Amino acid sequence: MEYLDFATGLTMCNNAKWQELFGIPKREAETELGQEYMDMARAIQVVTEEVVFRLARTAKDITGCDNLVLAGGVTLNCVANGKLQRSSLFKDLWVQPAAGDAGGALGAAYAAHYIGSEKIKLRKPVSRQYDSMEGSFLGPAYDPITIERMCRRYGAVLEKIESEDSLCKRVASFLAEGQIVGWFQGRMEWGPRALGNRSILGDPRNLEMQKKLNLKIKFREGFRPFAPSVLMEDASEYFEIDSPSPYMQLVVPVKKSHRRPLPEGYEFMPLYERLYHIRSDIQAVTHVDFTARIQTVHKETNERYWKLISAFKELTGYGLLVNTSFNVRGEPIVCSPDDAYRCFMRTEMDWLVINNYLFSKQEQKNWQDDEDWQDMYELD
């Protein structure tokens, strides 16, 4: 613990000790990410996976149970979760959507409910392929009056589309053309992942989509990966998975049928050279090691998002979209229509959809931002 400071201090590491041990200084924010720091991150990931597997095997030895439930911030490590699931150590794996500290609220609520109830009643899931949390859409939703009031405040130009099918078809056509859409629907997700109600969406086939989303929308390093939202019924067509992953908690391999051949010596190339090499026909969601952090989308729990992806499939033949959280680097995910519109106007998003309301960037009035918003939050 002399190398770590989180238990009693305000930082994760004892920087002087780490510099002495590894021979490299602390990397300051916004400085170049050199190979030595990439190597250190990789080493920490490998050690983390070893610890997770040892804990899992010990739990299996002690209990003899074939099912594993994970919680705690480390279990947001989707790479370790995916490897644990594919190991066949357990028949089933469950990682609750807010596995970090915020998830303690779920335990408190369950404890209060069960302690105060004479009879414990377990809810049956809406689908045999799904769980009783029903998508974890536990946050606030906003009515038309609130949305229209926001529009008057900013002088926003909007179009209201009454038909859900028409809305999904139009938005799918924008996405198929390579445009980027802010998608704001219904109740906000609970947990750190955007699951289709507070999301920024793009075309996974587009070779420039990852770079564009990182540099012009999220304002962060170009290597950051993005996740696919895939129709549950199509998941096994693109990825090596045969079970649901509704909360984006698993990293799994992309099917070989969708991969592209790699050049000789690829694994020894610098990161950014590997990053922009064409690896698959769903390039924007394929990591440099041919994996992806997937979210399976289910009609039973998020029908509108499922319809949007289905409409995109009708146009393109691909039943998945790029999904990233509706925010810029350092900010929390947007919650209200006001948050969504400001984020939309501060970035190079092409379209914004708030429930049944459609906003085109080209039709909006000149935006004057009196906040130095890039300095409002610490970098992530």
Describe the structure.
This protein is α/β, with parallel strands linked by helices and 380 residues long. The chain has 2 domains: 49-115, no CATH class; 144-375, Alpha-Beta Complex (DHBP synthase). It has helices at residues 15-22, 35-63, 78-86, 104-115, 144-154, 164-176, 209-218, 235-238, 271-275, 303-316, 337-346; strands spanning 67-70, 92-95, 159-160, 181-184, 198-202, 227-231, 250-253, 291-297, 320-325, 351-354, 357-360. Helix 3 (78-86) links the parallel strand 1 and strand 2 (92-95). The two termini are 25 Å apart.
Number of domains: 2
Low-confidence stretches: none
CATH-defined fold name of the largest domain: DHBP synthase
Helix content: 25-40%
The CATH homologous superfamily of the largest domain corresponds to Carbamoyltransferase, C-terminal domain
Cα end-to-end separation: 25 Å
Number of helices: 11
Give the structural class: alpha/beta
Summary of the model, kept short:
Helices cover 33% and strands 13% of the residues.
